[in-house]
């Protein structure tokens, strides 16, 4: 009877589930609300940038010799004669429909232009991130384990060189050595001209498109063009990731639980990867995500040296030409990238570290 009474007094399963579901739902709603507020603030910032820059959007369309009548008609057509709040409301409405305006350089929608060039930058930055993370994380871990040894000093020198060496110089030297002299890699651009007709653009990612076509010769040509600029771009990311990983690991290796594990006879590398690295994984993820975001928006010099038709090069050309619709659109896309990557980091935190749930 006592057992039956105990079972009867237990809360129903639905109540227990509701008690867990409600806080999680509130956290999700809070997270989504913060994302919405951030995006609206980002839209307001880009809107003000477009209004404060010393470039007249009307004159950028008509030219400096436009008459006053033509100027007024174009300003009314662009909605610049309306109150500022009304302009901002129209701007938000356009963004909700993925309308970023029309590019002055090409006469096409800015969204279409960004969609055309962005896959090239994603492919380049992703390959660079894989190289930078694949080398940077183990290098930082080993440097922390063998602190103040020759391995640690070499790792720190490599990181310093990755920070200090300018990408444009490394790119030029890489082209001279590995392309012009040794012939190990492809030259500027994403693909050789003789292969352009063999590539059927499906996703915009040339490596993926080559795999979908089952053309391994084409895949090899695309990879040969990608590997050198990706490696150059990966140096700075590798330097930052290895340095931060080393710092995080050193802090954890000095904790008491490491001493206790060693006293129990647990192997060094089992402690490092099973216990210590798990505790710094959340911080490493943050560093990797931020590095990836900076690679996506900061590959201008690398794309210029290698004639890479990507996002950074498109944004630079638009800025030099006074194409403010494209510049503001690119700025907005960069901001959205950072917001999305931060959101992904928050989700990964909850998966990897139960303490954050």
UniProtKB/TrEMBL annotation:
Segments traversing the membrane: 31-53, 122-146, 166-185, 222-241, 280-306, 326-352
PROSITE patterns: ABC_TM1 (PS50928)
Ranges of residues in domain ABC transmembrane type-1: 118-349
Keywords: Cell membrane, Membrane, Transmembrane, Transmembrane helix, Transport
Bilayer disposition of the protein: Multi-pass membrane protein
Top-level taxon in the UniProt lineage: Bacteria
Pfam families assigned to the protein according to its UniProt record, in alphabetical order: BPD_transp_1, BPD_transp_1_N
Main localization, broad class: membrane
Gene3D superfamilies named in the record: MetI-like
Cell compartments where the protein resides: Cell membrane
Keyword Glycosyltransferase assigned: no
CDD domains in UniProt: TM_PBP2
Family: Belongs to the binding-protein-dependent transport system permease family.
Protein name: ABC transporter permease
Organism: Paracoccus pacificus
């Amino acid at each position: 009877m006592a057992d039956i009474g105990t079972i009867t007094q237990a809360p129903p399963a639905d109540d227990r589930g509701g008690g867990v579901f409600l806080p999680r739902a509130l956290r999700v709603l809070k997270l989504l609300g913060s994302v919405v507020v951030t995006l609206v603030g980002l839209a307001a910032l880009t809107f003000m940038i477009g209004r404060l820059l010393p470039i007249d959007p009307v004159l950028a369309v008509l030219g400096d010799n436009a008459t006053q009548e033509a100027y007024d008609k174009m300003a009314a057509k662009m909605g610049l004669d309306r109150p500022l709040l009304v302009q901002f409301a129209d701007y938000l409405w356009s963004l909700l429909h993925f309308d970023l305006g029309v590019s002055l350089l090409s006469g096409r929608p800015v969204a279409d232009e960004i969609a055309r060039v962005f896959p090239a930058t994603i492919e380049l930055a992703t390959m660079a991130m894989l190289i930078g993370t694949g080398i940077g994380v183990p290098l930082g871990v080993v440097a922390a384990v063998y602190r103040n040894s020759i391995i640690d000093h070499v790792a720190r020198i490599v990181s310093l060189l990755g920070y200090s060496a300018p990408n444009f110089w490394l790119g030029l030297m890489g082209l001279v050595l590995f392309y012009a002299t040794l012939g190990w890699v492809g030259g500027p651009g994403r693909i050789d001209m003789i292969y352009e007709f063999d590539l059927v653009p499906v996703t915009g990612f040339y490596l993926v498109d080559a795999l979908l076509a089952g053309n391994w010769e084409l895949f090899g040509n695309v990879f040969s063009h990608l590997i050198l600029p990706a490696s150059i771009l990966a140096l700075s990311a590798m330097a930052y990731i290895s340095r931060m990983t080393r710092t995080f690991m050193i802090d954890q290796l000095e904790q008491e639980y490491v001493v206790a594990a060693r006293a129990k006879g647990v192997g060094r590398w089992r402690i490092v990867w099973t216990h210590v690295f798990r505790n710094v994984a959340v911080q490493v993820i943050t560093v990797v995500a931020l590095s990836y975001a900076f690679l996506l928006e900061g590959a201008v010099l690398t794309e210029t040296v290698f004639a890479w038709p990507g996002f950074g090069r498109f944004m630079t050309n638009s800025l030099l030409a006074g194409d403010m619709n494209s510049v503001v659109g690119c700025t907005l896309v960069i901001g959205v990238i950072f917001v999305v990557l931060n959101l992904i980091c928050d989700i990964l935190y909850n998966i990897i570290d139960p303490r954050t749930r």
